Amino acid sequence: xxxFGYALTTRYPPVAGVLIAHAVESICRMRxxxxxxxxxxxxxxxxxxxxxxxxxxxxxxxxxxNVNSHPEQxxxxxxxxxxxxxxxxxxxxxxxxxxxxMVREFLAFFKDGGAAEASLxxxxxxxxxxxxxxxxxxxxxxxRELNALDINRExxxxxxxxxxxxxxxxSLGEVMx
Length: 177
Hints:
Blueprint: H1 8-28, E1 33-35, E2 39-42, E3 45-55, E4 58-65, H2 76-79, H3 85-89, H4 95-111, H5 117-127, E5 133-139, E6 142-151, E7 158-161, E8 167-170, E9 174-176
């Protein structure tokens, strides 16, 4: 982490989302979109998520993806909002190939010293289903409806505007659908 600088801990989740999207697309040939701060989306439904924790100078990255699940097995309240890669691809997917593809993406990124970080942050914006719309955000202080405008390329924070035209940066929260 020290090599990349502390700010990477806040920029890393969006970068990780794009790296995972690249890996999934190399196996599935379907474009993943991203929802701030950490959801992997396919055809408007959640297919996975990322959890990043910083501990003792390391970034621990948890990746959960519905690969070969069947949506009819999901709980009823989840089935309308979630999907799996195999369901959308209409075929079972090789889990080992997906894991190898993800490892390759992350290794290439870190081996290159994070040189692609700026372009990956820009790609996150291109893949975002959050930006450019009114969103309901679950924040520490409660639920707010705001206009999601952009992400701060330096911090990974969501830049929003309230109804009075005030800008705010959100670092912790969840976009609710």
